[in-house]
Amino acid sequence: TISYWNGRYLPLDEVHVSPLDRGFLFADGLYEVTAAYNGRLFEPEAHIARLQRGMASLRIDTGLSAGDWLAIMERLAADSGIAGDLTVYLQVTRGAAASRGHGFPAGVAPSVFGMTSPLKRPPAAWREQGVAAITIPDIRWLRCDLKSIALLGSVLAQQAATDAGVVDAIQLRDGVVTEGAATNVFVVKDGAVATPANDSRILEGITRTVILRLAAEHGLALEERDVAAAELDAADEIWIASTTKEITPVTRLNGKPVGTGAPGPVWRRLFPLFAERLGR
Ligand code: PLP
Fold first, then answer.
1. Whose CA is nearest to atom 10 of ligand 1?
2. Number of independent structural domains in the chain
3. In the listed set 83, 118, 153, which residue is the last one of a domain according to the structure?
4. What are the required cofactors (predicted)?
5. 35 CA distance to ligand 1 centroid (A)?
6. What CATH number is associated with residue 81?
7. Nearest alpha carbon, ligand 1 atom 12
8. Each residue of 67-116: pLDDT tens digit?
9. Is 129 exposed, middle or buried (0-12, 13-18, 19+ CB in 10 A)?
10. What pLDDT digit, counting tens, does each position of 190-206 carry?
């Protein structure tokens, strides 16, 4: 499969990364995962804008414009050799310095990498029955707004879910919901949707942004605010949302049913609108 590496397109196994790359040594970098359905990228501009905001915040300058990024993503998708839906993965690190030292090195070019993978869409059973999740403490740092390649917090959260035999782990910080292992979280009570506000405790998910837009367009009550942990136990519906999990209803939390224990009416109203946006 074709990949992108610092201005060139080449087979993935021909990409060689220096052990001095700051992505390897310090996780000093950012990434993006964008889906493409039927050969069409979903919300690529939003993913590019988030990457560019993150890079500006970290003072990493690739010299690539939004148009350049879009061209890279489109070429990777077009030449992927993947028959069905796919994801485009992009990663930028601060690059490989001559020696190891924490501060930003001078005169080092960022490393820019891209690849594609087949997209495994969520199984139909997730939409029919929902999925199970657990809650766990959020042990991550306080810049979760950056889509950092330093993912140990998310790795451990996902493994806690897997060890518990469930799909996701909803993280709690200071008594409020932050997000899932790699998803944003929504709760519904009496027809009103709430999701944690967009601050540095969460990643501003592109799927989340699409949900906010759909809610506004279709007159769904949706509030961005602190969501108390206790609201999860009282919720009629809980959803997790991301590029790869789409919008998935959580119907069991910590071994107990959420609401009726089946995907709820607000999700059933919203999901078809979302699927239509995906071209699905
Ligand atoms: N929150 C975290 C921590 C994530 O890692 C992700 C995606 O990987 C999301 C939320 C959802 O973001 P998006 O909808 O852009 O995929």
1. 183
2. 2
3. 118
4. pyridoxal 5'-phosphate
5. 12
6. 3.30.470.10
7. 205
8. 999 999 999 999 999 999 999 999 999 999 999 999 999 999 999 999 99
9. middle
10. 999 999 999 999 999 99
Q: Is residue 189 among the annotated active site residues?
A: no
Query: Do residues 129 and 197 share a domain?
Result: yes
Domain boundary among 59, 84, 118: 118
Provide the domain limits for residue 23: 2-118
For residues 187 and 77, state if they share a domain: no
> Using CA positions, which residue lies closest to atom 13 of ligand 1?
205
- Is the shortest distance between the CB of 206 and ligand 1 below 6 Å? yes
